[in-house]
Amino acid sequence: MAKETIVVGSDGVGFTLKSKIKELLAELGYDVLDVGCHSTEMAHYPVHAKALAMAIRDGKAERGFLFCGSGVGVCMMANRFPWIRAAQVYNPTVARLTRDHNNANVACFGENLNGLWVVQESVKVFLDTPFCNEGRHVPRQRMLSEPEGDFF
User: Which member of 38, 101, 132, 137 is catalytic?
Assistant: First the structure.
């Protein structure tokens, strides 16, 4: 029985890295929902980042991974949706902090910037790290989830 479903998406540049991470996720026992793209052909990353956000909104997955050339574009698009807390991740320490401190539900990687081993280790850490749910991080979590709140 799978631990949970993880949603993944990419543009054409991020496709190869996404494919390798899908293999890792399957080895770790996760079900994988791939919202595209499905080749190295040019694809617009906003389309697939939005599809990932909608899959999380619709309860098809709670967490996901996005891939493009730098990780920046997919992260910017994903964060347009208030239920998404996406972070550009470039090593396992950042993966841990984004979960522990910020309760990120999407990690974004750049195929042109990150080596496979670093991404694999970062994915494992991201999946294994819970939100600390204490201290100064709790009100910050609320602020991230309610950006138009009256806390400023």
Answer: 101
